[in-house]
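Anyone opening a protein record will find just a pair of labelled lines. A complete record is shown below as an example.
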Amino acid sequence: MINKMDNKAILSNGVEMPWVGLGVFQVENGQIVVDSVKAAIRNGYRSIDTAAIYGNEEGVGQGIKEGIAETGIKREDLFITSKVWNSDLGYESTLNAFEDSLKKLGLDYLDLYLIHWPVEGKFVDSWKALEKLYKDGRVKAIGMSNFQVHHLQEVMKNAEIMPMINQVELHPRLNHKDLRKFLKENSIQVEAWAPLMQGGLFDNEELLSIAKKYNKSIAQVVLRWHLQNEVVIIPKSIKEHRIVENADLFDFELSNEDMKKINSLNQNHRVGPDPDNFDF
């Protein structure tokens, strides 16, 4: 039962990952992302998720530095994720991209490094690079983002080290029941990006009714649904009151009936690209 902000998911290699983190997709580099990261750390967040393509790793790094100074926590208390972008896939280029991300973040190591998208013909070589980084102690855990079952199977049949995380678009309109079953069977933790469907759920009458029942917001109900499905979440916000609200998830529990109602909202509807059909 996930009932506290400091509860953690245990990855297949024993590394502990916070269930709730801050995502910074499309957050402008500079003071905006610095302040967002600091607000998150100030309010108990210990996980920050960025990526090379977001263009804000420098600001995230500065926010981490200032957040540590403000709160007195240690670097090892934080869980920092970044991702290698499509144009850098391949063995040597992935290693170089990792070093570039680390430099921009101002860190000595990452807690999690992911292959951002499954570019055919390239992601297996990149996985070999991630395995090297892991074996060299440069990163605590490795995984992928936006991988379907068949992508994962291709990596796994060529891998020395099994993926520990798969971060995918996941929300009540796209609940990935079959993918989550595969991940669970293979001890791969599922993590949701766009856990709130980028705001696309906030006028849903079913969710509004459930939210009123628990005296919570729709966002809180949906994020709680994720946690009760054992999904790691990284909701994004640049507003401190929203950052606080998105972590206020531990004083209520959705009933089995309400979990089923939310499960029934699935339409296999994406707000982001299809991993089997993307062009960037």
Notes: The chain has ten helices and ten strands. The CA atoms of residues 79 and 149 lie 26 Å apart. Strands lie at 8-10, 16-18, 22-23, 47-49, 79-84, 110-115, 139-145, 165-169, 189-193, 232-233.
